[in-house]
Design a protein that fits this description.
The chain is built from 16 helices and 13 strands. By secondary structure, the protein is α/β, with parallel strands linked by helices. It has two domains: about 1-170 and about 350-365, Rossmann fold; about 190-345, Glycogen Phosphorylase B (Rossmann fold). The longest helix is centred in the N-terminal third of the chain and has 19 residues, at about 70-85. It binds uridine-diphosphate-N-acetylglucosamine and uridine-5'-diphosphate.
């Protein structure tokens, strides 16, 4: 049996690894174990509960206002023990968080093969996003197998002289997850969402990025405030990240404003169904940029660059940056101009077809010679 140890620690990694872990668990030739660093605690547990995942190892490292070094050191040290105990043939990490980087480094120090899920995303700007851009490049240097979600991400890896044989285009596992969550009859559990008037136009907002904390996040909140003041038929729903540095700013500016609902993080089934009933999405999140296009929801990205250019090319996503005037102007165009809205509201799926996890599992079987044929790359 191939012993696979999946390592993750934050909400988005858990959402995107959950479908893969389910597939690995069902495969007779794979012994699948899970280690969570718990870089996030409540937000991770919410995902583990909703997908009914249990961790074989839980490093429980989260601290309030943790620094990047705190996370990296604690995860690296804890993982050393876990890898010694689990003796995996392959460690899997996802994406670009501090946990991803520590997981990759731990696998290298212990000379274990590494598979990188969601490989090859790049802005080539080392501080945007920070520290994700460098995390994924460093992990790319360590990984033995690169599961690139798109051909664009494969091209980035080839440009960095990564061997073509080690790169597989699989689609993004987030689309696998999305396929299991959307339900047109869905009834919300969150008390605020139960009360929201969905006949109004809903703007879904999330923002949490480290480089946006401070003035950019203040600008974002001020733009939201202005939208609310000028559009009375709009309701803003903003599930606010648990980071106190985010919450202080957001509640400080938007707390108790008419038309703005600030809620705690909601589970991913609630989130996907909320997105499905929204008019537009304003976000600096990576995952939302991938999910919203497949639901045909226009996205204004609250960043100046993105490592996910595919949906911009298809016209469903626009970069709005973090200046108040720009965000407000782009949002008003979508709210005022039906044609402009229709141009952006196209359901597209450049990020996957719902079978990314199956492909990744097949790549593992191929690597360890349980399968003869190289899995066929995903094409949109
Ligand atoms: C992390 C990732 C980022 C990812 C994001 C997803 C790094 C460096 N950053 O950023 O790439 O996009 O997760 O959300 O890996 N907190 C809680 N409870 C939780 C989660 C967080 O209280 O369940 C608070 C803690 O005070 C914690 C702080 O939020 O110290 C920040 O968490 P951290 O994981 O360091 O950074 P994120 O901004 O969440
Ligand atoms: N999400 C969620 N509940 C929330 C906010 C986001 O389930 O209250 C989901 C969202 O649908 C996406 C993922 O979390 O799948 C994105 O996580 P986040 O924005 O924290 O991280 P990023 O994608 O930017 O790394």
């Amino acid at each position: 049996m191939i012993k696979v140890l999946s390592v993750f620690g934050t909400r988005p990694e858990a959402i995107k690894m959950a479908p893969l872990i389910k597939v690995l668990q069902k495969e007779k030739d794979i012994d699948s174990k899970v280690c969570v660093t718990a870089q996030h605690r409540e937000m991770l547990d919410q995902v583990m509960d909703i997908f009914q995942l249990t961790a074989d190892y839980d490093l429980n490292i989260m601290e309030e206002k943790q620094s990047l070094s705190d996370i990296t050191i604690h995860a690296l040290k804890g993982l050393e023990e876990v890898i010694k105990d689990a003796q995996p043939d392959m460690v899997l990490v996802h994406g670009d968080t501090a946990t991803t980087f520590a997981g990759a480094l731990a696998s290298y120090y212990n000379k274990v093969n590494l598979g990188h899920v969601e490989a090859g995303l790049r802005t080539y700007n080392k501080y945007f996003p920070y520290p994700e851009e460098l995390n994924r490049r460093l992990v790319g240097a360590i990984a033995d197998l690169h599961f690139a979600p798109t051909f664009g991400s494969k091209r980035n890896l080839l440009r960095e002289n990564i061997g073509e044989n080690s790169i597989f285009v699989t689609g993004n596992t987030v689309i696998d997850a999305l396929k299991t969550t959307i339900n047109k009859e869905y009834e919300f559990k969150d008390p605020t969402l139960k009360m929201v008037d969905f006949s109004k136009r809903i703007i879904l907002v999330t923002a949490h990025r480290r480089e946006n904390i401070g003035e950019p996040l203040e600008n974002i909140c001020n733009a939201i405030n202005q939208i609310c003041e000028n559009y009375k038929d709009v309701e803003i729903i903003y599930p606010v990240h648990m980071n106190p540095k985010v919450r202080d700013v957001v509640f400080g500016i938007l707390g108790n404003k008419d038309g703005v609902h600030l809620i705690d993080p909601i589970d991913v089934v609630e989130m996907h169904n909320l997105m499905d009933r929204s008019f537009i999405v304003l976000t600096d999140s990576g995952g939302l940029q991938e999910e919203a296009p497949s639901l045909g929801k226009p996205v204004l990205v609250l960043r100046s660059e993105t490592e996910r250019p595919e949906a911009i090319e298809y016209g469903t996503v626009k970069l709005a940056g973090t200046k108040m005037k720009n965000i407000y102007t782009l949002a008003s165009i979508l709210l005022d101009d039906k044609n402009e809205y229709e141009k952006m509201a196209n359901a597209i799926n450049p990020y996957g077809d719902g079978y990314a996890s199956e492909r990744i599992k097949d790549c593992l079987l191929y690597k360890f010679r349980y399968k003869k044929e190289r899995p066929v790359d995903f094409r949109p």
